[in-house]
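Troubleshooting: if your tokenizer reports a length mismatch, compare against these two reference records.
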Amino acid sequence: MLFCKMSFKNLFNKESSTSVDVECVSEPAESISTEKIKLHGDFHDRLDVEKHGETQRRITPRHVSLMIIGQSIGSGLFLGVRTPLNTSGSLSFFLAFTIWAVFVVYPLMQVVGVICCYLPIKGSFIHYSARYVDPALGFASSIIYIYTCMMFVCLEATAVAQVIGFWTDVNPGAWITICIVIYPLIGIFGSNIYGEVEFYSSILKLFMVMGLMLFSLVSMCGGNPRHDAYGFQHWKEGGLFREYLVDGSTGKFLAWWSSLLWAAFAAGGPDGLAMLAGEIKRPRTTMANAAKRTYIRVYIFYIGGMFFLCCLVSSVNPKLVAQLLEGSNSSAGSPWVIGIEDVGVKGLASVINAGIMMSAFSCGNAFFYCSARSIYSAALGGYLPRFLAKCLPNGAPIYCVLITFAVSLISYLNVNESGAVVFNWFVNLCATGLLLTYTCIWWSYFQFRKAWEFKHKQKMKHPEYPYFLCPQWMHPIFTYLGLALTVLVVFFNGFWIFFPGQFNVSNLFTSYFAPVFFVCLFVFWKVVKRTHFRTAKTADITSGKQRIDDEEEAEEKEIREQEFVFYQNAKWYHKAWQKFYAFWFT
């Protein structure tokens, strides 16, 4: 294994120190395309490990097993769903969520599993974009994703304060302060603490959604205080498909499309999984298992949850409409609470409010982590000053955490009405940021497949390809369909402003600022740095791989030895627990 050594004196005219490629250059036999990229000289993912330290693999398979189910699930799926439900009608709303979850979220999770299992580096999809497509794409994706994550941290901290307002009239600034102080504390203590917080938060989210689904099932069969076996009655009330903006079939399609847009903004997770790749223990095994278990997230949260919600409450429920008009941000406006109270069950509002609060806090914590790690990745790639890659001994990128904390202070704009207007502008400007990130991941995946097949002169399939792959039926039809849907949503996310009486400059700006800004970032970096598009021949799919292969081999050997010692001395009940634990969490 070769270490690529460089002198900082040659680069920055400073005192000499040893510097290495972020993940180390692989053996010469795998360096065919790497040589071409070095000739380009337009992307340098370097880090002085002795000077800056590095992040550590401290997130365990147990953490990831639950995080893949509940990470990034915020208040939107419990409170915000009332808007698309009311706009489009029950069946239209359900189909929109189902289509997005099945044809975009699930395939994209598989795609993330494929590229991260092959090369689980610290730079994640930011470096994939640079190495497989173009360094300019890496720059654009890093800046837009950092901004998006920072704004969502502010949004979720504000949501926590608003939900707590259900119980008290204390100034929301107090609760915002608690959130934005706890987030960096978790970040400073290291990724293993973040993993623990998200692990238990995901368990609570899972129990909450399962409990709501079970209640809905029992209630619709007549198991409620009023003994009303209403079945699927609420689906038909108000119409299975409602009209939006215009009459007729076109209006029904536009209503469905508006719900699809909302699902695209609410049903996420692939970016968070990709960001974990550089800090997971046994990354190839863990990422593969996480990708395989994505169906749990899709079926429970996005399909099962929305199905039983439509059974519980009508899209035109008078209380639901009233709460929309009032703009309530507490659990009183949640369609789940409204449906539960309509069948005669009281007192659950506070329980659900607590669940919504916890979900919002957890989602903000996840975005805080992703923001810090994306700044770190951008610093490694040379898109931001390299000193930002400084890490504490526990692997926490301290400057990245502090920058995210500083920007999160924007949340205080929401304390008064005039500031809230400015805050909403900040948040709305990043509305399509995640979708642009998804587009970069799709693009990187397709380029990676082409590069691997070019290098090995064969199709990427088992057993020739030794790592995790999508199911055979998924590529290329469903992967390209997922990319097409993502791009369409980006282009037509502001379709409604072009209808009579709907247009204003503010809405146009907020709907399309992120895509235009993304293109400007790409063009800027491409012109200034004179970057080159990668081809199947020049895409760098090997740098860093040998180091990861060696680490994986050593780690797997250590685990086998530990298991051998354990099974030699353990009692039968310890062995039974170990098998149960391994089945569910590894």
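Reference record two:
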Amino acid sequence: MTQKSLLHAVAAQIANGYETAEVPMYSEQLRMPDRKVIIKIIENLQKVFFPAYFAGGTVSHVSAETFAEFLLGEIYTDLCEQVHLAFSNTIKDEAELRERTSAVCDRFLCRLPQIQAMLMKDVAANFDGDPAAGSKEEVIFSYPGLYAIFVYRVAHELYESKVPLIPRIMSEYAHGATGIDINPGAQIGEYFFIDHGTGIVVGETTIIGDHVKLYQGVTLGALSPRHGHAVTGKRHPTVGDNATIYSGASILGGKTLSIINAPFLHWPDSMFTWCPEEKTLFPCDMFGSHYCEPYVFDYNTVYPDKYEIAFKGYYDAIFGPFKPYVISGLDKIKDLDIQRICTSHGPVITKQGRLDYVMEQYRIWSTPVPKETRQIPLFYCSAYGNTGLIAHAIRDGIREALPEADCETYDLNKHELGDMAALLNSADAFCVGSPTLNADAVAPIWMLLAHVDAINSKKKPVLVFGSYGWSGEAVPNLTARLNGLKMNVFGEGLKITFVPSEEDLAAAKELGRQFAQSL
């Protein structure tokens, strides 16, 4: 077979493939938009929205209005041509085709100022959301996330006007350039932030609220359809305002995820997620426990006593310091029809199981209990009994000034550390004393201070004291630590050498009296 005959045979097979294809492939009547011209429209729109960054030196030669008008005219001409082509395969009447094209392009042109305003909010969100961003100028010049958002906002306007082909050509061009796939049909609110961005997928029926952050690898997708295009309606998730979705997360299906800010439960940026369709709350760490039951759901609890211990211990360790925030968090969800709670740790909590109980317990544990008397404990360690003598003298001075106060001394070597830490954190004020050994306070005192609730103990009044034989570093070291915890340290503390004399004990009693009067 000659080369010419070979070419003829292959061409005939290719032509037959055109005729038998399920979509039009070759026809004098078939007209398609030009991808190169569509990309040119994107580039010109980028120059219109961010002229100083992408228009080169042309911006310095004419007024801003003249510059914008010239480019807009070019964009309008190109867009009319491409929209006309996109509609031409479905609208056969030429007058209707021209009217539809003109209406779509006029609407698009009128919407550009609103798109510009939205993009500037996106710039602010990308700058504010990324500590590594040197400036907003850097964001505009170099951030792939902002570029993908820009192309999406343009393509979405054409999608809303039901323009065939062009919106998807635009979004897939951005996808190829950035690795970020945002379907033009998605509905995305203001101040949208994409960090890094590679691998992000946002499906067609996704709804995203305001002030939402997405990190790399996030998928807001649909469940795999069994019947292809027979699947209609809401296929992708709804994400509420102020949500942050971190890298690698996949959220599939047409469910709604409403974000409820819940700061300090137990991180400053903690939040709850509520899915109303499933009546399910995802409260991050709240209501959790470091405990693994043989079964997933709480109504099948095999070891209820052990679970209860773990449940209370988790609350004490994680949420005990944040009781006012717990009450606030409970108030935010009290009107939700919650049927199950999926915590980050522990069994799934259900309505038929422990749900009402755990919410009630959290509220009881977090509600302040009024104190009938002021609580002023004195914690100390004493190597030879000298620091203990000082503690008792200070106690007597406090009791003399505040006879109604609950003021007791506690030798840390004779009490459980956990009980002492709880007492310190609940006290209105306290005193702490240590002898000096190895130029420092002794270990039990440091262990007690390691359990201080630093959040709720700020400005708590404290008095420091101790005896010493040589250099006496315990009192200044403890004072420095307590100042670092932002507590209200009374004076410079009291240091007494060796065995306290009667005069020393009188001075300690007087210091206790003065401390009590300062409260």
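Descriptive notes for reference record two:
- The radius of gyration is 35 Å.
- The chain has a mean pLDDT of 93.
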